[in-house]
Amino acid sequence: MTVSTDPGAAADAAAPHDGEETARRSRGPILAVLALVLGVALGIGIGLSIPHFTKPGDDSVEAGFLRDMSTHHAQAVEMSMIAHQKSDDAEIVYVANDIALTQHGQIGYMQAWLRDWGLSPTGSEPAMAWMPNSAGSIVNGLMPGMATPEQLTKLRAASGKELNIEFLTLMRQHHLGGIHMAQEAVELSDNKDVDWIAESMVKSQQTELGLIDDLLKKVQAS
Amino acid sequence: MSTPGPERVPSSVKVSKTSGQGKPPSSSSGSSGKKPGAKGPAGKGGGKGRKPVTPVKVAGGRNWGPIAVAGVVVLVAVGIIGYGVFAAVQGSRDWQDKVSEIAGVVNYRKQNNAQINDTSHKQGTQQYVTSPPVGGAHNATPQNCSGDVYDAPIANEHAVHSLEHGAVWITYKQGLAADQVNVLKGKVEGQDYTMMSPYAGLDKNVSVQVWGFQYKTDDVNDPKIDEFIKDTRLVSALEPGISCSGGNTTTGPLQAAGSDGTVMNK
């Protein structure tokens, strides 16, 4: 028994050893495949999510500014188109043309970036929520500088000198509100595209303010 | 004695691995008698030879601490990446899928009704499949839809053109209480690509529509109204990039036709 059991015992001891080695041998490729699959899955995941983390999000300053400025611009386009159609002053017709085309083009830039970022062109947050201390700057849903429905009705009905003065006055106020928003965006945003367009708005609208003031003086004196 | 040894070695290995194939009949009595016998002395007799083996096994049986830490790290990383992927996919979901999921919203784009899909400009009053209309041939002039609040019914022929531009049109039953109208007004004022007006013969208190989608409710505070606006405003435009201004700003039926042009087929 002792002689016969010894080889058996030795075999018993050897058996798990052999089994472990074969198991290790068969586990090797499985582990390699698993690592490969996990690596590929991680790579795809990182690839998919990195753009999401680097692009401004739905509640970002950038998205809020682009959405709100699109709405703000749209009203400038609306008022300028009215003046372009109805003003009897060639200089005002041209400045209205300039404002309408520039701002409608800028709306296109802003909407395209939102689309690139996979964001909706409209947000669910209230207007100006991206700007700190903006509570109270919204009156009846209107952002700073925006004309009221009554003012727009008056502009549509006006003609001659009254129309020219009304348009220039409303646009002056509109530019002041817009410049303030754009300055805040330059301050708060670190996206180079948003900074670029906001800075260009500040510059061009400040220049236009000078022209509007000159035209107002000219029209009022007429 | 040398022959049973090598015989038993493979047999015992095979039995442990494949749970006995053809061996039991030939050595059933032998193995059953030997195994308990072998194991008994194996623990004692083979102790000297095997003891170094067992600690090796324990040491080789994984150090779980670092594995657990690495596992947690990987889980957290996968979770963060998974959320990123989810958010990216969710964020870029098509607006039509989103609005279709709102219970009660009717998707007319899916129906492929030629009359609703008609985008042509036509003069004079038009007939529409739904009330209020959600699409179809319309007047060349849109209704102004830059957050315009109209206090009287507007012409369908102008309004449908605004829907083509991506406007959300909120209509309410004529004679709705002023405080309820004001709730709706709050959703429109200052919001480009929206407009609202009372609607004659509306079957619910409120109907909100864009081109091809409509939601009706009796409750002006129904959160689904806001959800509908959020999912559809501007993105529902058939002509992206076009403005909502420069349109007609007057109320009342088309020109002096004296009819609002609506035929209620439904």
- The N- to C-terminal Cα distance of chain B equals 98 Å
Helix/strand class of chain A: mainly alpha
Number of helices of chain B: 10
User: Number of helical segments of chain A?
Assistant: 6
Order of helices and strands of chain A: HHHHHH
Corresponding CATH architecture of the largest domain in chain A: Up-down Bundle
Radius of gyration of chain A over alpha carbons? Answer: 33 Å
Keywords (chain A): Membrane, Transmembrane, Transmembrane helix
Organism (chain A): Paractinoplanes ovalisporus
Region (Disordered) (chain A): 1-24
Protein name (chain A): DUF305 domain-containing protein
Describe, in short, the structure shown.
The complex is a heterodimer of chains A (222) and B (266). Chain A contains 6 helices and no strands. With 222 residues, chain A is mostly helical.
How would you characterize this protein structure?
- The complex is a heterodimer of chains A (222) and B (266).
- Chain A is an all-alpha fold.
- Chain A has two domains: 54 residues; 165 residues, Up-down Bundle (Ferritin).
- Helix content of chain A is 78%, strand content 0%.
- Chain A has six helices and no strands.
- The longest helix of chain A is centred in the N-terminal third of the chain and has 53 residues.
- The radius of gyration of chain A is 33 Å and the shape is rod-shaped.
- Chain A starts with a helix and ends with a helix.
- With 266 residues, chain B is an alpha/beta fold.
- Among the domains of chain B are: 36 residues, no CATH class; 133 residues, no CATH class.
- Chain B contains ten helices and six strands; from the N terminus they run H-H-H-H-H-H-E-H-E-H-E-H-E-E-E-H.
- Chain B has a six-stranded mixed sheet.
- In chain B, strand 3, helix 9 and strand 4 form a beta-alpha-beta unit.
- Chain B starts with a helix and ends in a 34-residue tail after the last helix.
- Chains A and B meet through helix 1, helix 2, helix 3 and helix 4 of A and helix 1, helix 2, helix 4, helix 5 and strand 2 of B.
